[in-house]
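Subject: sequence -> structure tokens, single chain

Hey, anyone have a minute? Need the predicted structure for the following. Not urgent.
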Amino acid sequence: MSVTVRVPAKVNVQLAVGAARPDGFHDLANVFLAVGLHDEVTVAPADALGLTCTGPGSDQVPLDRTNLAARAAIALAERHGISPDVRIHIDKDIPVAGGMAGGSADAAGALVACDALWGTKASREELLDICAELGSDVPFSLVGGAALGTGRGEKLELLDVGGPFWWVFAAADGGLSTPAVYREFDRLSPRAPEPVAAPALLDALRTGDVHALAATVTNDLQPAALSLFPSLKDTLDAGTSAGALAALVSGSGPTTAFLAADESAARRVAEGLAASGTCRSVRVASSPAPGATLL
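Reply:
Had a minute. Here:
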């Protein structure tokens, strides 16, 4: 017997970042939008906890107990007094170390899959509580759709979306460490203001107005990401030249995200980016997408 769960990538249409807190985290106003790029996480009974991974970038994924998916299985097992004897297989399609929450998505997928495999019947509240313990982006990977994340991003308020919205994602050659990007943010913005979600952006999401959304997307981590990875500016410029309505670094990067007017415009932006020589690969996806889903 095995259980498979599909989990989405995310883009941050607003990432407002406050100053560093005493615990080292930052208060955020983080508007998440799940997009139709997915990993699939399959779990099956085993003699001991084990992890395998296939797909683009899978050689960069840790296959030990530091992996968030393994930690999710362990956390659920500990809560229910059972041994985490399970084989976890991750089929990657979300860019690795790209600022699109692939590792967080895999953790949410493993959690939902193990709950189904073991029959632990965890409540949604318990699953979200475990997600928040695992990482700031993991709760959103569970719920999907669109949400405003506050605190360090783990406290979610679900948002209405009048979309769909079409995106192009350009994967960079190389990765960026999220802690390194936050350290650079602290250096560049030592007195960051209290983060607040932009009402105009929330209105644009709710009404499905792509041009209003393009005018309001922001990422406070973008200057730090560009400081550490300057060539990302060439990719952002190439996407804008190809017709994107908005261009931004996705989360802590280095994946860049481009909002297009519609699907055909997204295909044109993707073609322009692919021809630009400024990125490793290009993907087109729509949003919003469901959260962790049993297949």
